[in-house]
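Exercise: predict the structure of this protein bound to magnesium ion.
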Amino acid sequence: PSVGEKYEYQAEVSRLMDLIVNSLYSNKEVFLRELISNASDALDKLRFLSVTDSELLKDATDLDIRIQTDKDNGIITIIDSGIGMTRQELIDCLGTIAQSGTAKFLKALKDSKDAGADNNLIGQFGVGFYSAFLVADRVVVSTKSPRSDKQYVWEGEANASSYTIREDTDPENHIPRGTRLTLYLKRDDKGFAHPERIQKLVKNYSQFVSFPIYTWQEKGYTKEVEVDEDPAEAKKDEQDDTTEKKKTKTVVEKYWDWELTNETQPIWLRNPKEVSTEDYNEFYKKTFNEYLEPLASSHFTTEGEVEFRSILYVPAIASTGKDDIVNPKTKNIRLYVKRVFISDDFDGELFPRYLSFVKGVVDSNDLPLNVSREILQESRIVRIMRKRLVRKAFDMILGISMSENREDYEKFWDNFGKHLKLGCIEDRENHKRIAPLLRFFSSQSEQEMISLDEYVENMKPEQKDIYYIASDSVTSARNTPFLERLLEKDLEVLFLVDPIDEIAIQNLKSYKEKNFVDITKEDLDLGDKNEEKEKNMKQEFGQTCDWIKKRLGDKVASVQISNRLSSSPCVLVSGKFGWSANMERLMKSQTV
Ligand code: ADP
Ligand code: MG
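Solution:
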């Protein structure tokens, strides 16, 4: 019974709770994963802040999570010694939807409804604090922030539109710092309060939590106790004439105690040989709130000049569509220093923006714990780390491209092809790594994209250059008169149909010492010049050209006899140093 100030939930919260309870009913146990992950986040925050402010730790130096169960009354209590919440934070965090996990859940729910996907998928999402109401009628959160000298209690009930907050003045409830969450389970869910059940769930869901999680377990030890001999036995003994011997029996002494229930070594510190793909994928999904398995992962340690460990992932889909190309602040890389989480707020320090879709963790022993943005930006160590990380990311992508399963790379290219093309423009240093990963349609492969290697392999023995045409679609590329002569000679032409393609290719300039050549430029040389024939043509048609030029005036730079056409009467080409027609169109529409 609480007498506290009453607050209404933000409207979306009520709706969200409804959704959670109704769509997750079959997968209720996720509540524990969510609440443990909040406790772990709170401990991470505290550990991070305490690096610069050791005062924060003074009341309680143990950073852990403790889960107690009362099976007779159906109560679960989760206690963490983390950062806690002030009164205002209670209102902001537990009364509004401002949080990542829950917002993502809502979106996923909508997407999966739109796609007609089944509700099971949703169980894999981070649904946050409100998942407590999956199993509990009533939730009481008592919390003490080191920034506040008071402890507060938040109390809410399932299916209610409001909650209360009051100060916790009961000395029995006092906690030095952190949060104690008490769940009063619904009648049908009281089974979750069995200590063995909780232990099993913790093992299952909290494999990757790097703080110790203790559960309250009944223990027993055996001991020998002396027993009074019963008279009949004693008599028998006498008859057997045995010497004096005391009788004992074994009894089990029961008691309750905290038991460490999880393994706290972070997965990146383990030996890669002992970690399965499933473990990596699980870690990925839990750490980044993802529901799809990654396309690839890479776990490595670097030694020498700079030492760090890392696990990198290529996601299966771009997280915010094309937005993250322009906004590299994706929270995709989590930086740890000596296992302490430091930050996931980077802006190109560890990966160039075109690779900002790569997710992962990086743990360094060489950076100072109180590393700041400024230090990161200027650090030589970070520059070396960045180089290595980028190299590893490319290896990983190359691995996908060489996979037996062509679909994987198609998926990758669909989602992140644009990023790599941006890399051609922004990262000259890595051209050699990016170029083999590019894919284009071509005059000989209009359905399936080809790589530059495939193009080069298919080149004619006398062919020196790589031909391309930029256009707005495969159909219009195929239908240009520029193609005629090349098709006749069976020369393959790349179709650059994405607006960024042409600029990317122009930045690359060449691949395996073969220049990229735009077939619409006026000096196109197919290596079949016939001087005699040209001279004759000039004599025959020179006057016609002059006449046409006169008629068209300033509309064209010049009118020339062409040797690139076979069936069309004429073609408009761009000057050697001018923009291509495609580029001109782009510049006009300002899309680049
Ligand atoms: P998310 O974890 O994605 O932010 P949640 O709904 O799980 O969303 O939690 C909402 C917010 O409530 C958290 O961001 C955090 O600020 C606060 N919170 C929840 N549990 C705790 C806790 N045990 N200690 C401190 N703060 C917490
Ligand atoms: Mg959470």
